[in-house]
Amino acid sequence: MEYVLTTQSLSKHYKDFKALDALTMHVPKGSIYGFVGRNGAGKTTLIRLICGLQYPTSGTYALYGVDSAQKDIAKVRRRMGAVVETPSIYLDLTAQDNLKEQFRVLGLPSDDGIPELLKLVGLGDTGKKKARNFSLGMKQRLGIAVALAGSPDLLVLDEPVNGLDPQGIIEIRELILKLNRERRITVLISSHILDELSKLATHYGFIDSGRIVKELSARELEAACRKCLRVEVTDIRVLARILDGMGIDYKILSDGQADVFAQLNISQLSRALDAEGCELLSAQERDESLESYFVNLVGGGSHD
Amino acid sequence: MMNLLSAGFFRLWRSKSFWVSLAVMAIVGAIEPLFGYAAMAELAANGSMDASVSLDSRYIIFPFLSGILSSAFCALFVGAGHSDGGIRSKLAAGHRRAVVYLSELILCVTAGALLCLGYIAAVLATGIPLLGPMRTPLLTVLWYTLCAVIMTTAITALFTTISILCHNKAVAAVACIFLAYFLLFLGIFLNARLAEPEFYPAHQSIEDGQIVTVEARPNPGYIRGMKRAVYQFLFDLPGCQAVQLSVTMTTGVPPRLPLWSLASMTMFAGLGVALFRKKDLK
């Protein structure tokens, strides 16, 4: 798999506090990578590091294969657009002037792409209204437009839906999906709003206390969170044989436990097992959401 | 660098803080000769022998004002780069920190020089018709102007360094404005102390009908040795230098003053680049 961003034992310490602790992660090309963690887990610190706002204490990261220790890393950053915490927009400028300023920062030869960019983020009709008078959602969308000014291949969004109303959240979600599907932009999106993230992400990285505790694709997560019946039996081989006979999908967890992914008639299963000398000890329905998966993964401890 | 300067000037022309600062300079520049003219009219009404008020005394004020206004301007302009995320955006776009710092410095220094020009244009526009041309020779005035603009750019470099190293716009603004006033009052204090005569001259007075001769005696308040060297060093620094410039305008500004300003500006820039390169930004 081709990765646009990888980190290798990346650490960032502030005096005695380890904001990132040997973090290793992989963002696949073309993905929407949901970077999940509670407040203070280290999400924003990682984004600051890859944007060049801070330097790692140890470890490295690579953008498009270029190592952070190499001089070319600054050039490669031009392939990336970012909205870190708050959108990078001048409040006393209009949406159009903000983009004009960013086009100059990037050294783009003409301002021709600005109307299209404003239209893309739904700010085509803001006219001479200053960014100061924009709603939070409009500011966020303008921040994304500024990040998109250099036609990046990688878009880094730090908590983009924080504080937005439901309509604003939907608009941002649709915009991200559009950018990913139509422009093939890889998106790294950090959030602790899991429900929202689950509607977008194709890959997940779960971070806790500055470390990645799990990286998996949305498909793997879906499988992990799939509705199932967890059954406990005295002979797992008998159970497997019976389920194979019924054509039912299942996953063996241990010598006596398996997850069965189907609506089962418990009495029928129990009789079939009994006929082959196997006892059904327990059956429990499981339906894990992203939220409960996350809580199980990082524990339900208090926030730092 | 050119990209950042192009973007910076684009923002500077749209910056409210720049235009307000320039307007203040121009308004004060335009009003000063009016005060001079009013004073001249009053002297003439009182039948004073010399009822003329020179434009020169109105002209010399601008380094005081430009120092204070550039402190506020730098803090607001560079501070907006921090608070609105512009500096972050430039770094994320792959620009090196030294280049980002130097582009901000060039912008602020240019703005500082433009503030001076705003005052000069206004004071000459209203001053020459009302008070007549300046009495100081043109070359001396031009030399003074050059030295004052260089001093303004040097102190602007100091304020830029403070503003770019301080994330908090309000804290940076307070620090810069406080520093501008502090340097100004320090300059006034140092000027007073350094101007103290070494000796009180001998003189004669009449007491009880007798002529009394008082011998020349040393001034206990006169500053000597290392302390004088330190005072003079501080007095030559940008900020404090504004007082010295105004005092020496008619006689000619000593060449060491612009040299000190240029050296200070280089030092502030070097220090700023070194610290900004190491700074963790939010």
Can you offer a commentary on this structure?
The complex is a heterodimer of chains A (304) and B (282). Chain A has 304 residues and is α/β, with parallel strands linked by helices. Chain A contains eleven helices and 14 strands. In chain A, the strands form three sheets. In chain A, strands 6-7-8-3-9-10 form a six-stranded mixed beta sheet, with helices on both faces. In chain A, strands 2-1-4-5 form a four-stranded antiparallel beta sheet, with helices on one face. A four-stranded antiparallel beta sheet of chain A has the order 12-13-11-14, covered by helices on one side. Chain A is elongated. With 282 residues, chain B is mainly α. Chain B has one domain (2-277). A two-stranded antiparallel sheet of chain B has the order 1-4. In chain B, strands 2-3 form a two-stranded antiparallel ribbon. In chain B, strand 2 and strand 3 form a beta hairpin. In chain B, helix 2 runs parallel beside helix 6 (97-131), helix 6 runs antiparallel to helix 7 (138-165) and helix 7 crosses helix 8. The longest helix of chain B is centred in the middle third of the chain and has 35 residues, at 97-131. The interface between A and B is medium-sized, with 35 and 26 residues.
